[in-house]
Amino acid sequence: MSLIKCKECQKEFSSNAKACPNCGAPNKKTSGCAMLFLILFGTIVVVVVYINSTTPKSPPPTASQITEKQKVDEEAKKQELAKLQANLIEFKKGLQSYNLDYQCHIDERSKRLVIIVDNSWHSQHYQNRLQAAQNLLKVWTKITSDPYAKIEITDFNGNTVGGSHGALSGAWVNKE
Asked: How far apart are CA 108 and CA 167, in angstroms?
């Protein structure tokens, strides 16, 4: 307990008193913990402002840089499609070795192999179609070396009759 001066009337009174006994002004004492917090917070603000003001800002990309990135992206897409087309040729050779005459193409948007089957596909038992779809998916996955490769099996009318669910999953076929 110590004596402090009143900020209003300049008279001394106890630091434990809630107000000055002479003028009634409230005793607004700040605790050491609050003062330490304010100093620490102020220091952090100053450091952040300093770091932001000294960090060099990179200029926005120029039009030529943007078009260069687009060219690189387009070239990567072309290379990926060329690789898929090469894989498709190998896949068709494999089909021919099993006397399977399915029409196939790559859907450029989804990067998915589309296999077009004839009407005899529908007349096969569901389990046989499922096994065939799984085998086609396994072969395509092996050729592409892509565990996330997908296939879509359609009939001549463009109706999807089977395909792959997703990465590392089996194939599916419609039960119809």
From this structure: 18
Q: Mention every residue, 6+ apart, whose C-beta is less than 8 A from residue 151.
A: 112, 113, 114, 115, 133, 136, 137, 140, 163, 164, 171
Q: Which of 11-20, 29-38, 80-89, 128-137 has the lowest mean pLDDT?
A: 29-38
Contact present, 3 and 21 (Cβ < 8 Å)? no
Residues 6 or more apart in contact with residue 176 via CB below 8 angstroms: 122, 161
In whole angstroms, give the CA distance from residue 171 to residue 150: 9
| Alpha-carbon dihedral 78, 81, 85, 90, rounded to 10 degrees | 120
Longest dimension (CA), the chain: 110
| In contact, 106 and 84? CB cutoff 8 Å | yes
Q: Where are the beta strands (DSSP E) in the chain?
A: 3-5, 12-14, 103-107, 112-116, 151-154, 160-164, 171-173
Q: Counting Cβ atoms within 10 Å, is residue 95 exposed (0-12), middle (13-18) or buried (19+)?
A: middle
- Cβ partners under 8 Å of residue 11, min gap 6: 5, 20, 22, 23
Tens-place pLDDT, residues 48-91: 888 877 777 777 777 777 788 888 888 998 998 899 899 889 88
Identity of residue 114: V
